[in-house]
User: Fold this.
Amino acid sequence: MSALAFGLVAGVVFGALSVGLMLPLSFPDKTTALLGAFADRFAIGFLVPLVSMPAPGWVRGLLVGLLISLPSAILTKAYAPILILGTLGGGVIGWLAVKFVA
Assistant:
């Protein structure tokens, strides 16, 4: 699978997973919160397989996940859930990208 195709699939899956985890929670503007979470996680899934750096895939994913999640964590002050999910999700996507991207 190409890096672009894998990134699109990973982004949609990771975004949908994040939205699914947030559905039971309450927010002042739930639609905006869910769209923001989807966009944030989609960016992680999309970019991890496309980024080139001299590091193992899972390390690349951890770094991309952390960097993309950091602004949202700072804005919402919900550091732990946003940074942990974004970083771990990025790491998993990076690990999978090494296995499935040709």
Q: What stands out?
A: The helical segments are 3-22, 30-47, 57-76, 79-100.
